[in-house]
Structures are given as structure tokens and as C-alpha cells.
Specification:
This is Integrase zinc-binding domain-containing protein. One of its GO terms (molecular function) is nucleic acid binding. By secondary structure, the protein is an alpha+beta fold. It has 6 helices and 4 strands, in the order H-H-H-E-E-H-H-H-E-E. It folds into 3 domains: about 35 residues, no CATH class; about 100 residues, no CATH class; about 40 residues, no CATH class. Helix 1 packs across helix 2. The model has no long low-confidence stretch (mean pLDDT about 80).
Length: about 200
Amino acid sequence: MKTLSKTRERFYCDRLRADVEKWCRECHACGARKGPKTRTKGRLQRYNVGAPFERMALDILGPLPVTTRGNRYVLVLMDYFTKWSADHEATGCTPAHMLFGRTLRLPCDILFGRPSDTPSSPNEYLNNLEARLESVHAFARERIKLASERMKTRYDSGATGHHFKEGDQVWMYNPKRRRGLSPKLQQNWEGPYTIVKKLNDVI
């Protein structure tokens, strides 16, 4: 440590190393301007879902070319359980089958027809639909669980766990590049902050 070496050239005390390390650790200017964060990753956190619309993902796509109505963004919503329009490896089913209990009709089915599966009564349809949905949801939950376990095993093979506890002081990496200012003089870290509450390993 350069600071320790320079200090030893001029001073002596029994706890010099500990004092210098404590001073450097608590120096706000040093902490805010230290180098980029080490490229490490924590362990994968799993969030399994068990029913349609239990958890949704939202994304904004754009900016895109402006339409005739003045729109340039697309709002994308995805259900974590049924996923997107095609068969998904994790569930083994299409979203339509998982949501409605049946395969959607295509234009060719309307044009050429398809075998009729119309039930004899509304009660029969309701009972059959409930049984189909329960079966396909149970099947999908098991598939999602297995796929999640495989993904976590692969991801965690190169991960390093960092465990924080309430009361720990931490720095947050938040680089802000400003024009006309050398990156050497910019503060890449904010803090230190004190952890007041821990909900899980990532929050």
C-alpha cells in the first residue's frame, strides 16, 4: 500500500497499518473516486411463478420511426408463467393452451373447418376446462421448476456470493460521464450508505 509506505517513512506507532487501512477505508474522497467495480456476479435468484398473470414483465421498445399517429414507442408486456406466443421449452405448452385450455383457431381452420369438440352442455364444458387447466398448470409448474434449477446450476458455477447484513456500510457503483471532464476526476461511487433492512440476498 503506497499510503502505508509513505507514512512509515515519517512516523511510527504500534498500530500504524491498522490506522492507515482504517483511514483509507473511511476516506470519502478515496472511496468515491476508486476504480471501476470488479467484474463479479452474485448467485442467481429464482422467482418461480405458478399461475397466469401472477407476475408480469414490462418493457418499452424504442424510439422507433414515428407513425402517422405520432407514436414512436411500443409497450411490451409478458406473463412470466405463459411466456410468449410459441411453445416454450420451460413449459412445454403454448400460452393459449395454458391460458384458455385449448389451441387457438387459425384462419385456415375457419376456412376449411376442423373437427368439432363442442360439449353437450355448458356444465360439461366448464368441468372439462377446469380439469384441463389444472392439468396443464401442474405440468408447466413442474417443467418451470426443473428448467429453473438447471439454469441456476449453470449460472452459479461462475458466481461469487456476496452476503451483506444490516448495519454494513456499502458503496454504490454509479458512473456518470460528463463532457469535458477526465474520467480520472469523476466520482464513480456513491455513499457510503448503511444497510438498514435486508429483505433477501439481493434486496
